[in-house]
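Quick illustration, no need to memorize.
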Amino acid sequence: MISRVAEHCCWLSRYLERAENTARILEVNQTLLLDFYVPLEEQWQPVLIISGVHDYPGPYEAELVQAHMTWDNDNLCSIASSIAFARENARVVRETISAEMWSHLNHWNRWMQSQDAREVYMGDRHEFYNRIRRINQLFHGITDGTMAHEEPWEFLQLGKALERACQTARVLDVKYHTLLPNPEMAGTPVHNAHWVAILTSCSAYEPYHKLRRMADPEVAVPEFLLFHPTFPRSVRNCLYQVRRAAHAISGHPVSQPENEAERAIGGLVGWMQLVQIGDLLDAGLHEGITSIVNRIHEIGEAIYRTYFDIRVQIPGEWGFDPSI
C-alpha cells in the first residue's frame, strides 16, 4: 500500500470524526446555556479552545461562535471545512474505498453547501447537529460493511481512534477546568449540569450511568473518560484501537513494537495501564491531561514519519559511508 493512499485514508476518517465531535460539543453547549446561567467568559470560548481555535476574531456570542464553528470555510476546524476535507481525501482514494462510501460522503458534502442545510440550521439546530453526527456514524457503518478489512480499512480505524482519543482528552481538560474555580458549587444543579455536559460531549452519559455508580463525579467522570477499558471513546480504549490497527498494518505482534509509531503508542498505552486516577488528581488533572494530549500528538507525528513521509533518505542516513 502506497503512503499517499494510507495518509488520505487516515485523514478522511479523522476529519469526519472531527465534524461529529464539533457538532456534539456545539449542541451540548447550546442546551446547557438554555437551562442554566453560565458566566459569559465560560459560555462559548471553551468550545473554541477544545477545537484548537485560538485566533477567533469576533466576540464570544452564541450565534457568531456557532456560525464560525459550523460554516466558516476559513476556519479549518469548522464542520463545513472538516466535511469538505474528508470528501477531498475520499476523492483522491476513490479506487480504494467502496462506491457506497463515496456516494454517502459526496451527498452530504453537497448537502452542506445547499440552502436546505442552512434552513435546517436556522429552523432546528438540534436536528441539524444530529444530521452531522449521523454522517460519520453512517459512514463507518457503511465502511465496515462494504470495504475489505485490509490495510486501507486499518488506516481508517487508526485515524478515527486517534482523533477520538485527542478529542475526549481535550473536552475533559477544558470543561473540567471551568469547574475548578467554583468548589462552593459542588452538588448544585448547575455543577451537576456541567458534569452531564462533559459526559454528553463525549457520548458517554448513558454508558457512564450504566457502568459507573459512584457518588463523586469529580473522580468518577475523569476516571471513566480517561481509563475505562471498554467504553469506545475513553482515551485508554481509543489507544488500544490505535495500537491494534498499527500492529495489524505492520504485522508485528503487539508485544514486539518494531517501528517509531508502535513504540510511541506502546509507551502511552503502558503508562495509562499503570497510572491511577488518584495519581493524576494529586499531581494536577490539567497537567496530566496536557501530557496525554501532547503524547497523542507525538504519536500522530510518529505515524506520519513511519508511514506517510515519502522524503528519500540520503545514503549517509542508512548507516554506511556513501563514499565506499
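The two ends are 33 Å apart (CA to CA).
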